[in-house]
Amino acid sequence: MTTSIRLHVRAPLAAGAAVDCGTAQSRYLRTVMRRSTGDAVLLFNGEDGEWQATIETAARDSMRLICRRRTRPQDVAPDVWLAFALLKRDATDLAVRQATELGVARIMPVLTDHGQAARVNTDRLLAIIIEAAEQSERLTLPALSPPVTLTDLLAAWPGDRQLLAAIERLGSRALPAMVGPPCGLLVGPEGGFSARERAQLLRHPAVRALSLGSCVLRAETAIVAGLAQLLCSGTDDGTAAPLPSSAGDR
After folding, report:
1. Distance separating alpha carbons of residues 151 and 91, to the nearest angstrom
2. Taking the CA atoms of the chain, what radius of gyration do you get in angstroms?
3. What is the residue-wise DSSP string for 221-242?
4. Residue 114 banded pLDDT, cuts 50, 70, 90
5. What does each C-alpha distance from 75 to 7, 145, 161, 170 come to in angstroms?
6. Which residues contact residue 115 at a Cβ distance below 8 angstroms, ignoring those fewer than 6 apart?
7. CB–CB of 146/107 below 8 Å?
8. 143 φ, ψ to 5°?
9. Read out DSSP for 105-158?
């Protein structure tokens, strides 16, 4: 039986450790994936690496798994944060899923003047994060921050962490020679930041404008394009590599 099924669990993982699955995970294994006693499953909890476990008991709404061997040691997510203006539900869900798959360490929803939503279903986003981590073979879950206004985000932003802001139609803007973790990416709403917000951003000492090319991108596309630059900007020896700048808009 394949061991490609991965589950995120909260229990400690070690050789011989027992993990009791709740109703939802047990039903998923039993009815969706057709797994039963003796079958193998991969488990991770964000702290102890990835473990191969076998199903010891399988009841209607519960399963007990026993850890057998560690298949991968624990790793650490790149120290890149994503802050993005809340979008419509489907677009927000997609942004959270893609950011998780790309490996960010923290996801920070932001309330902006031109935003398309004023609140978020945190439980739904957490479920999306877990599913994306399971499917993408991540060993960690990104932290999910509660929504904050752009003003509050900037006020609390760490002084030693650059914030690369995708600002539409800013024109040519020099980037720092070296950009890499720890850093953050900020993507605004459809239609861009308001004039007030642009002024806030350009005054903030940690903010640097990031161009994503000559085309105006949808917010969820800009998130992927920006994260791809930041997450690929490191070199094999752990130092940051230069990011290319562009004379185009976001």
Report:
1. 23
2. 21
3. HHHHHHHHHHHT-B-TTSPBPP
4. confident
5. 17, 21, 21, 37
6. 85, 86, 87, 189
7. no
8. -70, 140
9. SEEEEEE-TT-S-S---HHHHHHHHHHHHHHHT-SS--EEPPPEEHHHHHHHS-
Rounded distance, CA 109 to CA 244, Å? 26
What is the token pair recorded at 206? Answer: 């940690």
Give tens-digit pLDDT for 161-177: 999 999 876 654 544 44
Structure tokens at 187: 């993507």
Q: Tell me, what's the pLDDT at 54?
A: 97
Where is pLDDT greater, at 213 or 177? 213
Q: Which of 98, 108, 221, 102 lies closest to 158 in space, CA to CA?
A: 108
Task: Please report the pLDDT score of residue 169 as a whole number.
Answer: 65
Please report, as a single letter, which amino acid is at residue 141: L
Residue 242 above 70 pLDDT? no
Nearest CA-CA partner of 179 in 241, 250, 245, 246 = 241
pLDDT at 50: 98
In the DSSP assignment, the letter for residue 244 is P
Q: Residue 10, SS3?
A: coil
Separation CA 19–CA 113 (nearest Å): 46
Amino acid at 7: L
Percent of the chain beyond pLDDT 90?
72
Helix (H) or strand (E) holding 27, with range, is helix 23-27
Residue 184 is predicted with a pLDDT of: 96
pLDDT at 41 over 90: yes
